[in-house]
Amino acid sequence: MIKASFTLIIFILCISALIGGFCWTYTINTWLDFIGKSPNHIKFWQGAIIGFIPYIGQVSLPAAGATWIAQLFLK
Question: At what angle do helices 60-74 and 2-34 cross, to 10 degrees?
């Protein structure tokens, strides 16, 4: 039982890191581009590390969606 729970937690963290790798990279680089900075500062692995952080990693999809919607009106 404990092994299954631990495996599930590791699986969820890996999925969160994968999603964070794409979403946080997009979100942060888009806002960097918007304010005039070089947009390639955040790499995939850095976004994945942000995705590992429990509550911040869960905000990655809403943040990417809000960024996409905001950029429709700002650019």
Answer: 20
